[in-house]
Automatic annotation (TrEMBL):
This is ATP-grasp domain-containing protein. Keywords: ATP-binding, Nucleotide-binding. The lineage of its organism: Bacteria, Bacillati, Actinomycetota, Actinomycetes, Kitasatosporales. Transmembrane segments: none annotated. Residues 107-292 form the ATP-grasp domain. PANTHER family: BETA-CITRYLGLUTAMATE SYNTHASE B-RELATED, RIBOSOMAL PROTEIN S6 MODIFICATION PROTEIN. It holds the Pfam family RimK. It comes from Streptomyces synnematoformans.
Length: 310
């Protein structure tokens, strides 16, 4: 193991600002960061060994960190799992990233772990959806199975809108994913967790004229990381095996109860914390954890604790 461990982030440059902050933190902690695009990585698998190459040169990471989603999710998952099978420690593994992208798996895992979460229905059958929503009441919210930043979300307010949505589902494997609407004053809270431990919380308020709190143009504020919020978020992150996670929650204004919407496994935060006038603490804490995990993966999982929380 090198004294200055090589930490490879597998991802593209869509979240470049976050990667720069993370890499600065890795260097301060004594590590060597490098981003490798999934298209750049060449893998040789033989009976003797697995090799990774970039530009024809061997790449020997001490740890790989997965930051792939949407178009590069499946390719990146294969590469991360191959690295894990080759004995390289992986943070946010192939299955973790799939769980974070798939609202199917998000819901199944959250309910399995007894995390407060909404009932959901997914599938294609129109009549089943109409009966389910009528029984539970309106409004309902529908989301694409794999999306981010509020894209493709709609409110369903009656049976006609439910049936219209079901009939609009395209061919192939696309399905509906529907859950009750939470009256939360058009706001939610994202809790950032590292090694299943909450380090910061941010409240997000929907832009004027919309109810989607994570849509572009939303307003963000520091949120208090209360013991209740911390406990729910940490349990949610652990249910996904997400060593870096953004847990999205809302507080029902009618019941006062928190529920988790979903767990994001590639959460951006640099722009948010700059807007709030503070350092992006989740990324500096993540850098500390990644270097510790590159040097001793099991020990870091067991013993690492954040130095700062917001």
């Amino acid at each position: 193991m090198a004294d200055s461990p090589l930490i490879v982030l597998l991802g593209n440059d869509d979240d470049d600002d976050d990667h720069r902050v993370l890499f600065d933190g890795v260097r301060r902690c004594g590590g060597r960061p490098r981003r490798v695009h999934p298209d750049e990585l060449v893998t040789e698998v033989t009976a003797e060994a697995t090799r990774f190459l970039v530009d024809g040169r061997d790449l020997a990471p001490d740890l790989m960190f997965g930051w792939v989603y949407e178009d590069y999710l499946i390719l990146g998952m294969n590469q991360l799992e191959t690295a894990r099978l080759a004995g390289i420690p992986v943070v946010n593994s192939a299955m973790t990233l799939l769980r974070g992208q798939s609202k199917y798996l998000n819901s199944a895992l959250l309910h399995r772990a007894k995390v407060p979460h909404l009932p959901v229905l997914w599938g294609r059958d129109e009549d089943t959806l109409a009966a389910w929503t009528a029984e539970r009441g309106y409004p309902m919210v529908t989301k694409p199975l794999m999306s981010s930043r509020g894209r493709g979300m709609h409110r369903l307010t009656d049976e006609a809108s439910v049936r219209h949505h079901a009939r609009g589902i395209g061919p192939g494997p696309e399905q509906y994913y529907v859950q009750p609407y939470v009256p939360a004053r058009h706001r939610d809270t994202r809790v950032l967790c590292v090694n299943y431990q909450a380090v910061a919380a941010v409240e997000r308020v929907a832009p004027e004229g919309t109810w989607i709190s994570n849509a572009p143009g939303n307003t963000r504020h520091r949120a208090e990381l209360t013991p209740e919020l911390r406990a729910i978020a940490e349990q949610a992150a652990e249910s996904m095996d997400a060593l870096f996670a953004g847990v999205d929650l809302a507080c029902d204004e009618q019941t006062g109860q928190w529920c988790v919407y979903e767990v994001n496994t590639c959460p951006t935060c640099t722009a948010t914390f700059r807007e709030l006038g503070t350092d992006p603490v989740p990324l500096t804490e993540l850098a500390s954890f990644l270097v510790a995990a590159a040097l001793d993966f099991d020990g870091a999982r067991r013993d690492w604790r954040p130095a700062t929380t917001l």
